[in-house]
Amino acid sequence: MSTVKVAVHGLGNIGKAVIDCLLCTRDIDCLGVVRRASSLGTQPLSLRGVPDYASIDALMAERGRPDVVIICGPSRNVPVDARYYMEKNISTVDSFDIHSEIPQVVAALDSAAKAAGKACITAAGWDPGTDSVLRALFEAMTPVGTTFTNFGRGRSMGHSVAARAVSGVENACSITIPIGGGKHSRLVYVLPAAGASFADIKQRIAADPYFSNDPLDVREVGSQEELDAVADNSHGVLMERIGASGSVSNQRLSFDMRIDNPALTAQVLVSCARAVTRLNPGCHTLIDVPPVALLPGDRMKNIARLV
């Protein structure tokens, strides 16, 4: 069995979960974690014995070149980070989650990937990601119809990161609440930094593109303990489509899951780290990736087992 060599970029909630998934995966070897120099040596329980480095160059000097870097930083940093690693002759996978910007990111990274002769997979979580594949399959099954994707109730990693990045915020948690028909509201709990104005924070969050298109409720908490009481990792989705196959209407399709958000995002990223080594140069999303490429083992054996 050939082994894919992987490095992890970042040790936040997703990075920690990626390490857990990698340590449970037999055909992928985790060479190390790239993180801020000021953080080196901290969080030993999260590292699970995996070495950490202040740069990819330091990692390569000690462990060799990885085949893939799994990018676990904020979505807004992904285009720059992915381009940087591909210029180092390393493929990347990421869970970029700003839906409206995905076409532009794919176009930009496609040019960078082809220039470097590498493949990358972007927007590879569960939504965008595996849910995107299901939406595509639903449309293939019922070409005429309407699909509603209802998230939550649950904690959104991307929205929480965006809220924490707002000036004056010490920490924050964003909860997604489904209101039906594919629409959602956002409930954001904020722990302000010392001396920060909560009223100003509310205005900044409301103006952020992550939050500006949905009903929003921003609430102040007075301590980290209060925030911890609402910041669990649960999430989920209910996807429903009613449409027609040929001239036959009233075809009803549904998919429902309740999950730990970082764990599932991490597992998708790890499966994509395997798949990206099997793809041609360029930028791909999960609807571009053959499902069999995500799986360990021999293609024909997987066909015999699953088809």
Automatic annotation (TrEMBL):
Protein EC: 1.4.1.16
An example Gene Ontology biological process: diaminopimelate biosynthetic process
Classification via Pfam families: DAPDH_C
Catalytic activity annotation: meso-2,6-diaminopimelate + NADP(+) + H2O = (S)-2-amino-6-oxoheptanedioate + NH4(+) + NADPH + H(+)
Binding positions for NADP(+) per the UniProt entry: 75-77, 95-97, 124-128
Family according to the record: Belongs to the diaminopimelate dehydrogenase family.
Subunit structure: Homodimer.
Name of this protein: Meso-diaminopimelate D-dehydrogenase
Protein species of origin: Desulfovibrio desulfuricans (strain ATCC 27774 / DSM 6949 / MB)
Classification of source organism: Bacteria, Pseudomonadati, Thermodesulfobacteriota, Desulfovibrionia, Desulfovibrionales
